[in-house]
Amino acid sequence: MNYTLNSIPERPVKPRERGFTMAMDKGLSIREVEDFLEVAGEYVDIVKLGWGTSFVTPNLKQKLEVYRAAGIPTYFGGTLFEAFIVRNQFDDYRRVLDEFGMTFAEVSDGSLEMPHDEKCEYIAKLSEQVTVLSEVGSKDAEKIIPPYMWIKLMQAELEAGAWKVIGEAREGGNVGLFRSTGEVRSGLVEEILTQIPFEKILWEAPQKAQQVWFIKLLGANVNLGNIAPSEVIPLETIRLGLRGDTFDHFLNMEKPC
Amino acid sequence: MNYTLNSIPERPVKPRERGFTMAMDKGLSIREVEDFLEVAGEYVDIVKLGWGTSFVTPNLKQKLEVYRAAGIPTYFGGTLFEAFIVRNQFDDYRRVLDEFGMTFAEVSDGSLEMPHDEKCEYIAKLSEQVTVLSEVGSKDAEKIIPPYMWIKLMQAELEAGAWKVIGEAREGGNVGLFRSTGEVRSGLVEEILTQIPFEKILWEAPQKAQQVWFIKLLGANVNLGNIAPSEVIPLETIRLGLRGDTFDHFLNMEKPC
Amino acid sequence: MNYTLNSIPERPVKPRERGFTMAMDKGLSIREVEDFLEVAGEYVDIVKLGWGTSFVTPNLKQKLEVYRAAGIPTYFGGTLFEAFIVRNQFDDYRRVLDEFGMTFAEVSDGSLEMPHDEKCEYIAKLSEQVTVLSEVGSKDAEKIIPPYMWIKLMQAELEAGAWKVIGEAREGGNVGLFRSTGEVRSGLVEEILTQIPFEKILWEAPQKAQQVWFIKLLGANVNLGNIAPSEVIPLETIRLGLRGDTFDHFLNMEKPC
């Protein structure tokens, strides 16, 4: 840190299981990645190349190399996995992961219908090849999943081999964990945490109000995802109580978490 | 493309009359333009220097040169044309276009009152000098133009020499083609297309929901404009069905358009 | 300017007391600062490193140097001052200002409770060391300050040594001067200006609609702050009547202000 402030919440160092930040790259140039990492390299733990953007970005191999050199793992968004599945091209997907040297992958079913057993099989198979993040929650605002079902799905996916499960929010933060207004479905989050370990969940929280909500409820070291590159520094200050939104949240705690 | 996916909508190559993307530069630096073109150069067909931003950006000549070297035409926003007209400086405007080597220009009447005959004369005169895009629709949310009038105006402007006509939306996407909520005036769009050829219209659609709406209605290769540079890659994935919003739109079509 | 347009509002040159623009850097990389200054260096008068972002950005000293070399003063956001105060570390704060060669500082009480006498003492003490901007208005949307109190607080802070007072809006523009909808509390602004000199106030106006509102009410050369770096050029065009929003505002004035 650039100077000393007392009573700042402790943050684990990388590699960490708690307090990590997943950022979303939806088409950065090489220099933009370098700029992002210059500023936020210490604070970002993993980067998702959003949905199918990796199909069209011409700088893909070189970009993956820049992240790799900085020690930041990357993975393709779950929608890309689904795009291969819906076309019956799972084997092609596995080859693509190898070809690009990917060590992480996401399994999701946000845009298609898939029996949950089948999803868990994909998690199991991909887990032999890479570290798997699996995502629960539909991108369709109409599909409401009740809390007990979120828990059941998450447990099954962790058992199938997922490293962490992701709570779906989309880039806009208006489905899954969130009401269409962007408001967090708070009872849902609390109930999930009675059954699933804190560090096993990565909460998608692209909007500031959502990040604040999770940090106030779950502490500085909640795992948060879908963060825009330019918002990683602002998020770090929210984690540390150095932005108005959480300014007094950590001050009177016996042990900042 | 970086890997092979089946049943992806076909996209024409440049120069194209359909499926083209107009992006808006509202003050990029030289390096930002280079970064933008590294990533999206293949997907962007023309760049508008938004409204009067070209008046104040100190890097103008050099920036135009970067776009030119990449084969991407540029033009000054229609509000700049209007700023010259309202000051009775049309001849100055023509000299400015020459001085900066512009090969495209926009004629619009979004911020001033102008008899339509006079607008068509400007289109005709400028067409002798450059390729003209003309814009229909007011920036004033209070001025509602009925569908038959949109059609009549567009037809007259094309006859006067406009290469394409633009449906006005502003950067914020809340006037002209759109209700103040950002919702598309869908009956209007459908009626326009009964009379004006598909490839002759460039729809301003700065917001993602609008892009999705046009692509679902008019296919992958609808002409869209006012796209932020960082949204050109996301837009391309929406065109290809590789983002959740259009994921299953192209899958069951006999002939993807 | 790149070409000549008649009847453009006059803008004072730097250093200026009126018509100045404060931009907010919330974690730019070195290259991003260079890009920002290439484009907008002439139009930005001072840069705030937002809230506590300076605590976590690894490139701080080098970044301050880039701004310094371009002749743009910088200061740490008021929330950082408050973070030191709430921890009883005021002397540390003064040392930090020295260590980083800061010549400006902000005194605010947006996130904590502080007797106004005490706030004025901080302004007085810091004024011996740096040029002080002080901020009036709570970040808490629930705390409504009546107009006579805004005036009283502003007068006292100017008397205590503040160079300018800032009207609080936060980055999101939804508290202080603004209703939760982002709408400006217009009666408040007008009443303040009956008592406090125009050039002594810096209005936070991060959203375009707010910038337009202030420029229409107070002219091209109102002091505006919390402007995103990429919005400095667009703001300049709004000041000059070269964007639709203020297109005809300056045209019929006898003396553009």
From TrEMBL, chains A, B, C:
Pfam families: ComA. Belongs to the phosphosulfolactate synthase family. This is Phosphosulfolactate synthase. Coiled coil: none annotated. It comes from the Bacteria.
